[in-house]
């Protein structure tokens, strides 16, 4: 299934989005859970990534949250990145990690990244306030694909079996986190359709919408998509939209460009983007951030316009998704 075949809805950050969710409310807990979420900080690209992360941590610390989580492309396990990790670890509460494809750049293994971050694992789950949270690793190799280049984006046999067992073992409503999305073949997880079918099978077996939503990063866009009663929510990058070689532009200074040469291939955000999510028995509420670009916007550089339902924009939309 291609991206254009999906029914997606995205609105500006100042609006509220309400989508109906088909199915029964059986199993919906009365408790509310609140968490902070960010994606694609790209510390190893952005010169001011520590300041961006610090703003998120400060605001998260001022809210009554149950936990915070990032969706990958966070930082590589270089010793000199420890001060960046110290900012994340300064949050006085539960903190969770998701592996992104760029976190292993430089020849690192996923195990090395997990160890450096002190994460629970490459993939894992946890319960909180009547909900079951699942963190998946979309960086397995596809055994049926002879990939000569590019990044692995697959959920392998061993992890799939773990996911089946994990879903079967819980009676709680489930929220899924991953780096790459499951709702598009456009650079998403290559067997995303199989994973969606697994979610839907779990819902059918439970007799209610057991898998409520799946949050992802990776694509640096802003949308909410609903497929067969499950929300697929894209969290925009904290730092930038990627534009590529044909649209490179020095955004800050020659000195910064010399030390951080990848920034000129992006359209960086003036302020960091992140969101706070509140889930209860009736809805998923997302409070996002809105900012401006540093330097010319993608449209000012004549970057090709993306579909309205999958936009390159400097914000994360406010949303209310009815369960």
Give a written overview of the molecule:
The protein has six helices and 15 strands. 41% of the residues are buried. α4 (157-169) packs parallel to α5. The protein has helices spanning 49-61, 82-89, 110-117, 157-169, 192-206, 254-259, and strands at residues 8-9, 33-38, 67-70, 95-96, 124-128, 131-135, 174-177, 211-216, 223-227, 230-234, 240-242, 266-268, 275-279, 283-287, 319-322. The strands form three sheets. It has a seven-stranded mixed beta sheet, covered by helices on one side. Helices cover 20% and strands 20% of the residues.
Q: Nutshell version of this structure?
A:
This protein has one domain: Metallo-dependent phosphatases (Purple Acid Phosphatase, chain A, domain 2), CATH 3.60.21.10. A hairpin with a 3-residue loop joins strand 13 (275-279) and strand 14 (283-287). It has 323 residues and is of the alpha/beta class.
Ends apart, CA distance between termini: 25 Å
Helix count, DSSP H or I runs of 4 or more residues: 6
Question: Nearest-angstrom radius of gyration?
Answer: 19 Å
Helix and strand string, N-terminal first?
EEHEHEHEEHEHEEEEHEEEE
User: Helical residue percent?
Assistant: 10-25%
Q: What CATH architecture do you see?
A: 4-Layer Sandwich
**CATH class assignment:** Alpha Beta
Structural domains: how many:
1
Low-pLDDT ranges: 1-26
Query: Could you say what the CATH topology is called?
Result: Purple Acid Phosphatase, chain A, domain 2
Overall mean pLDDT stands at 90
